[in-house]
Amino acid sequence: MQSLLCIGTFRFNCFLFILVAVVFNNPTDSGAVQLTQQNIDMTLASNELVFINFYADWCRFSNMLMPIYDEAAEEVAKDFPEAGKVVMGKVDCEKESSVASRFHITKYPTLKVIILTNYIK
């Protein structure tokens, strides 16, 4: 009986650990700002330079770029802490298809730099 109780406690602890790991490991929490239809216009209007990564979760190359891009975004946020200067953002093109079509995105990942609302490929 004691061994069954120990196994049950172990299973519960493993389940609890996995649950906490999944809840607190959110890949969208990074230096890169998640851009959506609701916030992209305000982000573009309120910053001098916006560097955007247009990605798709199913794309192998997007997945390879994402950790590098997020790390770079964190460094840029440290180097340019003042608001309105430089922002590195990312757009999930599967969820935000209207934003992707607005910027003529057909391949993933696509990087674009937007300076004072004029974009450069």
TrEMBL record:
InterPro entries: ERP44, Thioredoxin-like_sf, Thioredoxin_domain
Short name of any one Pfam family annotated for the protein: Thioredoxin
Keywords for this protein: Signal
Keyword DNA-binding: no
Thioredoxin domain boundaries: 15-121
PROSITE patterns tied to this protein: THIOREDOXIN_2 (PS51352)
Top-level lineage group: Eukaryota
GO BP of this protein: protein folding
Signal sequence region: 1-30
GO CC term (a single one): endoplasmic reticulum membrane
GO function term, MF aspect, one: protein disulfide isomerase activity
Xref: SUPFAM superfamilies: Thioredoxin-like
Alphabetical list of PANTHER family matching this protein: ENDOPLASMIC RETICULUM RESIDENT PROTEIN 44
Identification of the protein by name: Thioredoxin domain-containing protein
Lineage, highest ranks first: Eukaryota, Metazoa, Ecdysozoa, Arthropoda, Hexapoda
